[in-house]
Amino acid sequence: MNHAYPVRTDLRPRKLSGISDEQIGQHWTLYEGYVKNVNLLNAKLAALCDKKSFGPEFAELKRRLGFEYDGMILHEHYFGILKSGQKPLGDDAETTKLMKTSFGGYAAWLREFTAVGNMRGAGWAILYYDPSVQALTNHWIGDHEVGHPAGFIPILVMDVWEHAYMVDAGAGGRAAYVEAFLANVDWLMVERSVEDASRGAAVRF
User: Fold this and answer.
1) According to the CATH classification, is domain 94-198 in 3.55.40.20?
2) What is this structure's pTM?
């Protein structure tokens, strides 16, 4: 892989309700680190491939890729979905319809997603689209690269590692942070992601 990934500065949210710009700024530096490490690992792996050197160094760097890639990609999903001044989706939205068939409605989805986000441990709460049955499903992901259901498409990604909320709320502030996150979800972006996923197109953000 010779492609260098850019830091997606267009995705950086500002002036959110309940999540300060300082909190976002501290979190953003971690995202920049993932982008840097993805590019660094790819450059090192390309050099090893050019030398046909596929020994222990190649193996360990290759194993590390999943953590760094998913750290980069999940943070881009996370930051890209946050926007101030949001309104809920209407009853005619595809996301609303899928939440009804998948969970029994928005309220039931919200209860479950909130519960996942507040589960003990560091990780991610992710709403996926399952293209095999055209349904939505909530999952807990621990380490960035562990636990993703194969073939499912991330629609709504919430970071619940402590670094996502400690500046604002301290180590015990996850519940307030989860509430603040959900208050800033760009539901029009979620709707577009669902529409893209349902027709087999790449999710844009």
Assistant:
1) yes
2) 0.94
